[in-house]
Design brief:
Length: about 140
């Protein structure tokens, strides 16, 4: 089940599921595999690293991110709203809320997201930068 998921450090995950999917690529080492899909949770430097995105991007790579950060990147960028699901073949990407309840640097109003990926009927949750929030019970 988890053999197709690899933690690469910090908040970066790599999924190999017919497509190569990265979430929040940051400080990628060596010669990382090229991405079919890159998911960004929010616009902080350690989650949205243009240098790392450039290492794995091709002309066909799709980037998915909240509307708040979409404008800062070039290429095939798809905005996603909290509660929305985008489908890419056997991979469904659902955006869920991600925020801090007692700190100012990840406010709910920023529209940051976490992701629930459903790959071949298995669900994976990447929380983004968040505290335990009421929406998690959903």
């Amino acid at each position: 089940m988890l053999s197709n998921v690899k933690w690469l450090g910090h908040a970066t995950l790599l999924f190999k599921a017919g497509k190569i999917v990265y979430i929040d690529p940051y400080q990628l080492k060596g010669n990382p595999e090229k991405a079919d899909l890159i998911l960004i949770t929010h616009d902080h430097y350690d989650h949205l690293s243009e240098a790392d995105i450039d290492k794995i991007r091709t002309d066909n790579t799709i980037l998915v991110m909240p509307a708040a950060v979409q404008k800062s990147l070039r290429g095939d960028v798809r905005k996603i709203e909290i509660g929305e699901t985008l489908n890419f073949g056997n991979i469904a990407v659902r955006a869920v809320p991600s925020y801090n309840t007692n700190k100012d640097f990840h406010p709910k109003s920023a529209g940051n997201v976490g992701y629930i990926l459903t790959i071949d009927d298995i669900r994976y949750y990447h929380a983004g930068d968040t505290d335990v929030i009421p929406e998690m019970k959903d």
